[in-house]
Design brief:
CATH class: Mainly Alpha
CATH superfamily: Amino acid/polyamine transporter I
Structural class: mainly alpha
Largest sheet: none
Low-confidence stretches: 1-16, 18-22
Order of helices and strands: HHHHHHHHHHHHHHHHHHHH
CATH topology: Amino acid/polyamine transporter I
Length: 437
């Protein structure tokens, strides 16, 4: 955007900058806010809701149900902590897109040496494949539970539906966002219905906020919860969702957009946290120490709902799982395109990309591997990918040459550093357990 030469510039009215004065007509933000306080605010919100669907994908179902069924309320604190981490992380990603007008993979390509950028791209692609395992297996399992569709054909149906959802994005970001919100509402209503039917004990649930473990298996499950809650691919995606959605005119509008993004992130991630917490509370209340066996799997949980509450509860659970798998798979494909274009400046046809990344998931379905076990393993793999997204995000958002006056405050960078350190420490523990027992 051009500016007036310094010699010709005249004093600007108070509160305005050159970009504001030179641009004719109302800005994008002004047009949206002119709809009124309520509809103007709603019109600005949306990116975090797309991102938050990845935080309630089928991997979360597997991890949270296994945690509640096996350990009761003990790992509630892990879930709450992971959700607070997600709020900070997703806000920083959204901020990077708004302030710089570029997404995180593009910023990494500009800032880091080429070998580093290529390495980040390779691991991001591997994470995308692990993500697809969770999303495809979950949606296929839901179709199998609801309609008896064999898992492999159900995986192919999931691929077709996810393409259809993603196709809405070509008609404008708003249609895609509204479709994702619709699926999110189905997930939320499904678990709220079952939570009301099942109930939970407030005292024991509150005691789960005190950090504790019970053996190394509980630590492994905590890593799965973390991997299912803090999703590396949407750390990259969120910056792309905000980078060109509403073009800010000057720093004043950037500040305004960031305020709205804080609301967007808190509300969307708060809903995702509520859904995840409901999953764990239901499993702990209904299955922990109960008469049924194998309720730590999704299929077992479905049968448990049917046996202990009724078929309506089982259907609500399966519908929520189906909505989760369908919506999160489309978001995963979208983020894959952002990752490739950003890190290496190239793209491939969407159909080819979808085929490559979903291949491991279809192999899992065709091989008859136990679905919940595959989901849990995929979430542990995702937890190893988290630092490779968080470290670059922290380095970029604390760099004044990139962020200018919007650079992270010291307390923000310190909080982000604590998050990164916790994730790395957990991953080192898992590696040690894997190789040294």
């Amino acid at each position: 955007m051009s500016r007036l030469p310094d010699a010709a510039a005249e004093p600007l009215p108070s509160g305005l900058d050159a970009e504001t004065v030179l641009e004719p007509g109302p800005s994008d933000l002004e047009r949206i806010r002119s709809r009124g306080r309520l509809w103007g605010t709603i019109g600005i919100l949306g990116p975090a809701f797309v991102a938050c669907v990845a935080y309630v994908d089928p991997g979360n179902f597997a991890a949270n149900i296994a945690a509640g069924s096996t350990y009761g309320y003990m790992l509630v604190w892990v879930l709450v902590g992971a959700n607070l981490m997600a709020m900070l992380i997703q806000y920083l990603s959204a901020k990077a897109g708004i302030v710089t007008g570029r997404n995180l993979p593009e910023l990494c390509r500009d800032r880091f040496p080429k070998p580093v950028s290529r390495g980040l791209w390779v691991q991001a692609e591997l994470v995308a494949m692990a993500t697809d395992v969770a999303e495809f297996v979950g949606a296929a399992l839901a179709l199998n539970l609801l309609f008896g569709v064999p898992l492999f054909p159900a995986g192919l149906i999931t691929a077709v539906v996810s393409f259809g959802i993603l196709g809405l994005q070509r008609r404008g970001y708003r249609r895609f966002e509204l479709a994702i919100v619709f699926f999110l509402a189905i997930i939320l209503l499904g678990f709220l219905y079952n939570l009301v039917r099942v109930g939970f004990q407030l005292g024991p649930a509150a005691s789960g906020l005190v950090p504790s473990f019970s053996g190394t298996d509980s630590v492994l499950l905590a890593a799965a919860i973390l991997g299912a809650t803090v999703m590396p691919h949407v750390v990259y995606l969120h910056s792309a969702l905000t980078q060109g959605r509403i073009e800010p005119r000057g720093d004043r509008e950037r500040h305004q957009l960031l305020r709205f993004q804080r609301v967007d992130v808190v509300v969307a991630m708060g809903l995702a946290g509520l859904i995840n917490l409901a999953m764990l509370l239901i499993a702990a209340s209904l299955f922990f120490g109960g008469p049924l066996e194998a309720t730590d799997t999704i299929e077992g949980a479905y049968d448990g709902f049917k046996a202990l509450i009724g078929p309506e509860a089982a259907i609500a659970f399966a519908l929520a799982l189906l909505a989760s798998g369908m919506s999160s798979s489309s978001v995963g494909t979208y983020s894959g395109q952002v990752v490739m274009q950003g890190f290496i400046g190239r793209s491939i046809p969407l159909g080819l990309r979808r085929t490559v990344t979903m291949a491991p998931a279809l192999i899992v379905l065709a091989a008859g591997i136990e679905p919940t076990a595959a989901l849990l393993v995929s979430q542990v793999v995702l937890s190893f990918g988290i630092p490779f997204a968080l470290v670059p995000l922290l380095l970029v958002t604390r760099d004044r040459t990139v962020m200018g006056g919007f650079v992270n405050r010291r307390v923000t960078s310190a909080a982000a550093l604590v998050v990164v350190s916790l994730v790395v420490a957990l991953n080192l523990f898992l590696l040690g357990r894997l190789f040294f027992g």
